[in-house]
Every structure is written in C-alpha cells, then in structure tokens.
Specification:
Elements (H helix, E strand, L loop, with lengths): L1 H20 L3 H24 L8 H17 L3 H12 L11 H10 L3 H14 L5 H17 L3 H14 L3 H14 L2 H13 L8 H17 L6 H24 L8 H12 L4 H17 L3 H9 L6 H17 L3 H14 L4 H14 L2 H14 L4 H14 L2 H14 L4 H13 L3 H14 L4 H13 L3 H14 L4 H13 L3 H14 L4 H14 L2 H14 L4 H14 L4 H20 L29 E4 L11 E4 L14 H9 L12
Antiparallel strand pairs: 1-2
Length: 674
C-alpha cells in the first residue's frame, strides 16, 4: 500500500511539472498541493505501521520543491518563500542550500535587490569551487542586482570575477554596460577586447564546417531533411554572441573618444575586422548613419559609397542606404538600381521595398508604387514609412477614403505625429467634411500650437463654413505667429474694411506694403481706407505720392481727378494725363486684338480668381527607409510633391455686393472672392 501511495505522489509531481511546462499554472499548483497532501498521508501511514525506516526523504524534498516552484510561477511570492525556507532550514537536505538562488530570484522579481543579493551570496557559500558554471551564474545575478541598485562599482567587481574565471558573453556585455555607465573609455576598450577574446562555439572549425556543408548538400540531393539539434544549438549560440558584440560595439563606439566620435568608430572597426568581418561592415554602416544624424551628409555618402567597391554581399548590405541617399540627391536611376539590389538580396526587407516604391512614385508609376507599399506593410505591419506613403499615393490617385484609412491606421501607431494628423485633417477638408476637419486641425494645434499655417487653414475652413467670428480669430492667431503671410494679412485687412474699422485695416495694408514695397495695390488700399474715413487731405497726399512713384497708374490718376474735384483743387493737369493714358491703353488693347475692359488694380492677388497663393502648410512628405537591415537607423523623410489648398477668402454674398459698390470695387475688389 505504501509503495502504491508513493507511485501516486510521483505521478502527481510529474503531472504538476507537465502542467507548468504547458503554462497551465493553476493546474500545476493544484497537482502540487495534492502531491503534498498525499505525501503527508504516506508518511503518516508508514509511522502507524512501523515503517519509519522506509520514509523517502528525496520524495519529501521533491514534493516541497515542486510546491514552492508552483507558488512562484503563480506569483504567490510569500507562500513560495515560506516553503523554500522550510526546505533550506532542514538539515536533512544537504543540497538544499542552492535553493537560496530561487529565493533570491523571487526577491529580484519583487525589486527587493538587497535581499536578493543576500540570498545569492548565501547560495554561493553552499556551492563548491568545482561548480564553476553555477557559481558564475550566481555571481552574474549578484552583479545584475547591483546594477539595479545603481551600484556600478560593486557590479563591476562581480562581473570581473566571472571574466577572470569562466568568461561568457552575457557577463562580458554587462561589464561593458557598467564601464559605459561610469564613462570610463579606457576600461570600455579593455572590456570590449576581452569580449572579443571569448571563443564562440562552432566558429573556426573550417574542416568540420566543410564536411557539414557537404553532408547537407548530399541530404538535399537525396531529398532527406534531418533536424540537427546540436547544429541548431550552435547556431543559436553564435547568433547570441554576435548580438552581444554588435550591441556593445554600437553602444561604445561614439563614446570611446569624447573629442572625436569618428576615432571611436575607427578603433572599433579595426578591432572587429580580424575575426568579425561582417560585424565590422555593419559598424561602417552605423558610422555612416551617425554622420547622417550629425548632418554631415557628404561624409555619410562617402562611407556608404565605399561599399560599391566591395563584394556583392556587402554591397547588398549597404544597398538600402545607398538607394536612400541617391534618392535624396534626386539621382533616381541610381536610387532605383540599389533599391532593386536590396530587394533581390532580401525580398522581406520592408525599407528596401519602400525605397523601390518611392522611385516608382517619382516616375509616375503610382499603381506599382502602391503595390510595393502594400507588400512592405505585409512584411512589416508597423512600417510607418510604407503606411504614410500608401496614404500619399492613394491621395494622388484620388481614392481619398483609402488614403484616410491609411493615415488613420498610422495615427493609431504614432498618435502624436503632427504630419499624420495634418494629413487626416487635410483629407477631411478636401472631402468637404468641415466639422471633422476642424476637429483634427484642433488636435493638430495641441501638438504644434504656434504653427501659423495650421491656424490659417482653420481660419479658411471656418470661413468656408460661414463662421466669420472663428475665421477671424484663427487668422489673427496665425498673423500673431507669422506676421508676413500676405494671404492672412489681406484677409484680415478686408475683414476690418467690411467691419468699417478702417484704422485697423490701414495697419494691415501698410504691413503688406512693407512686405511688397513694389506692389502698388497695397498703397492704393491704404489710400482708399483714408478716403472712406473722410480724411481726404491725407488721401490726396498719398495719391500724389503714388502718382509720383507710378506715373502710368491709371487707377491712381482716376482717383486724383475725382478727389481734386471734390476738394475744389486744380485737376486739369491730372485730367490731361488721364485722358492720354486711357487713349494709349485703348490703342494698345486694340492692337492686341482685345477691346475689353481695362484691367483694374484692385483685382485678384497673383493669378486667376480661382487660384489664390498657396498657404504655409504642414509639409507633406514621402517617408523613405534608410536602415541597413537594422532597427537602429533613424526614420528619415523625403519631400514629395505638395498639394496646396487654395487660400480662402470671404464668400461673395448678395449683401457684400452693396459693400463693394460702396467702395467702388476699386481697391479691394476680388480679394473678397473664394
């Protein structure tokens, strides 16, 4: 009966362990508790039947250890610590001392790093010197705890002890992190050299590698595929070692020489070349990217172009960045060439697909560009450049709903990006959804509160929606931040004229005259305001000044004649000039085959009535990938063709015709046209 009960306990322990492996933690804990209950019944049964000498201490140890582990996995830290304490305090379990490592891990998870260090040290005292590997792991845990406490000097002591005895890549990397935190460049160099000296499993055995390659070819030829677990493990270790070396190199290179970061990169590349050629090449790309961040573009181009002379694999490694740089230089042929090379080398490189798509976008092959952006999104669902450019290409193709969906998806990934918010707002405006456009532009203002272009756009939207109060507010705010935008100045000037606040209107038209001193219409606007205010003497002075500067200006002469008549001044000489100029203009018009009315000074500003000058807007950009296959490069952008929205003015309403007639439609004219 005792043997049968013992089998049941072992079965429950195995079921508990199996459930833990499947991550069914609740079942694991239930089975562990049941095993503990059965084991106590077993001990009681043996005591009652005089079988005390048959009590299995190893079984009791296994049950308690499994129960403590199940508590730990379920996050029941106090119960786990209590159970572990019962085990380690029992002198009958000679190997229980190393379980203090588990207790230390629990304290570490609870961020009680001082208690964790205490437990790790107590465990270390229980481990004999022959157990070098387990001692190294415990020392590494002690070092990690010191790092968490910010005690880098103590952590360095632990890591250095490991590197002197049983060096491993993770401890070597952690040691370099500590040197970096203390800013000790000399020790960083020594630590990195020590890291490179650690042998990598499976590396350097050329003969074995050749034999394995032949065996793999033979297996492929016969159609057999055999999983080599040992080979997979070696590859995993090599990958991990390369990761530690690469990360340490990228971290330390700019800091090795405080005065010249280039010298640090050069030292690192030279140190890597003998044994790690591929990592050295990767560091050269990192050096080029550092030049880009430092805005030394020519140096970056020089470094990346040096890969053109290297073998195909290294050229492919730099192809994405080379494509990006040629694209920036507007050399689309070369950009396309290297984008093709990058895509051929790795069809699943999202950045390369984006660059290829951008080349097609510039060539006008929008449908093919769209396909590549979609493929890039398929490869990397959160590739922000491809999603942004997909929105742009849809916008250019006229499928505004799809463009809006792309930008809204991107907004969920990078919710605070002003360019994305602008695109959503602009698309709503283009579709006539003024309420939604207003909402999104208001969100944009919270991100860029002093952008005059955004404030101006909001003013235009409210103007189109017939809310002149809000339109005036946002135009005024735009003017406050950028007082040289003629569209905003003219809108505000016209608004004050319509409100019969001529003194304020004069301020804005005078500002416009200062910005465009050679443009006569602003001076005529100022003079017109004085005339409407009843300041005829001042208006006459200004008309005379304008006539002196622009003697052939027909509008000015007409008003000079009219105002001189009203004031009773001599105007014969002005009348003669006016008649002569009108005859000359009439003759000129007939010669040109015209015969229509003369062009008036108060007409639209710069171009046909349906084309107002473009506003300052948020830049519409085409984002391009620029990484050499790694995620450390910055996301850079490339300007794309801009779609300017027409500047809005006041809508022409019937009541406004009376106001314009009041002004003789001479000086403000079509500034009031959409």
């Amino acid at each position: 009966m005792a043997k049968e009960m013992e089998k049941q306990v072992n079965r429950l322990i195995e079921q508990s362990a199996d459930a833990a492996v499947r991550s069914d933690l609740t079942e694991a804990l239930e089975k562990a508790k049941e095993a503990g209950k059965k084991e106590r019944q077993l001990c009681k049964h043996r005591e009652q039947h005089g079988l005390v000498d048959q009590i299995n201490l190893d079984l009791t140890y296994s049950v308690c250890f499994n129960l403590a582990n199940a508590y730990h996995l379920n996050g029941m830290y106090e119960e786990a610590l209590h159970t572990y304490s019962l085990i380690v305090k029992n002198k009958q379990y000679p190997q229980s001392g190393r379980l203090r490592v588990n207790m230390g891990n629990i304290y570490y998870e609870q961020k009680k790093y001082t208690n964790a260090i205490k437990m790790y040290r107590m465990a270390l005292d229980q481990i004999p010197n022959t157990g070098k590997e387990i001692r190294s792991k415990i020392m590494r845990n002690i070092g990690n705890s010191f790092v968490r406490l910010g005690q880098f000097q103590d952590a360095i002591g632990s890591y250095e002890s490991i590197m002197e005895g049983n060096a491993d890549f993770q401890s070597g990397f952690n040691l370099i992190i500590c040197y970096f935190a203390l800013g000790d460049s000399d020790k960083m160099r020594r630590g990195f050299t020590k890291l490179l000296s650690i042998p990598i499993s499976g590396m350097g055995e050329e003969e074995e590698e050749e034999e394995e390659a032949k065996a793999a070819e033979a297996a492929e030829a016969t159609g057999e595929k055999k999983h080599d677990g040992l080979r997979a493990e070696l590859q995993q270790r090599q990958k991990q070692a390369a990761h530690f070396i690469t990360t340490a190199a990228k971290l330390c290179a700019p800091m090795l020489d405080r005065r010249d970061w280039v010298a640090g990169f050069d030292w690192m590349i030279e140190a890597l070349k003998p044994e790690h050629e591929s990592i050295a090449s990767h560091m050269e790309i990192c050096k080029a990217l550092h030049y880009l961040r430092d805005k030394q573009f020519n140096k970056a181009i020089e470094v990346l172009k040096s890969f053109e002379k290297k073998d195909q694999s290294l050229k492919a490694m730099a192809a994405t960045n080379l494509s990006f740089l040629y694209f920036l230089e507007s050399d689309i042929t070369q950009a396309d060439k290297y984008a093709n090379l990058a895509v051929r080398n790795d069809r699943y490189n999202a950045k390369a697909l984006v660059n290829k798509g951008n080349c097609l976008y510039v060539k006008g092959e929008l449908e093919r560009a769209k396909e590549l952006y979609l493929e890039a999104i398929g490869v990397e669902a959160d590739c922000v450049e491809s999603i942004y450019n997909l929105g742009l290409v849809n916008k250019k193709l006229g499928v505004l709903q799809e463009a809006q969906q792309a930008f809204e998806k991107l907004h969920s990934i990078i919710p605070n990006n002003p360019e994305v918010i602008y695109q959503i707002a602009n698309l709503h405006d283009m579709q006539g959804n003024y309420r939604h456009a207003t909402k999104w532009f208001n969100i944009l203002i919270t991100r860029v509160p002093s952008d005059p272009g955004v404030l101006s756009r909001l003013g235009q939207i409210f103007n189109k929606d017939d809310d002149e109060t809000q339109a005036f507010h946002y135009h005024q705010e735009s003017y406050r931040y950028y007082p040289v935008n003629l569209d905003v100045i003219s809108w505000l000037g016209v608004w004050y004229v319509k409100s019969e606040l001529y003194e304020k209107a004069i301020e804005f038209f005078e500002r416009a005259s200062q910005i465009q001193p050679q443009e006569v219409k602003w001076k005529l606007m100022v003079t017109s305001c004085y005339r409407r205010m009843g300041s005829y003497t001042r208006a006459l002075e200004l008309y005379e000044e304008i006539h002196e500067e622009y003697p052939d200006n027909l509008e000015c002469l007409r008003y000079l004649v009219a105002i001189c008549k009203d004031l009773g001044h001599h105007y014969d000489h002005y009348q003669k000039k006016l008649s002569k100029l009108e005859r000359a203009n009439a003759a000129k018009t007939q010669t040109m085959g015209g015969g229509g009315a003369l062009t008036r000074i108060g007409g639209p500003m710069g171009g046909p009535q349906d084309q107002a000058p473009p506003q300052r807007q948020m830049p519409q950009r085409q984002m391009t990938g620029d990484t050499g296959g790694a995620s450390d490069a910055p996301h850079s952008n490339m300007a794309a063709p801009m779609h300017h929205a027409a500047a809005g003015g006041g809508r022409r309403q019937p009541k406004q015709q009376e106001e314009e007639e009041l002004f003789d439609d001479a000086d403000i004219g079509d500034l009031l046209v959409d």
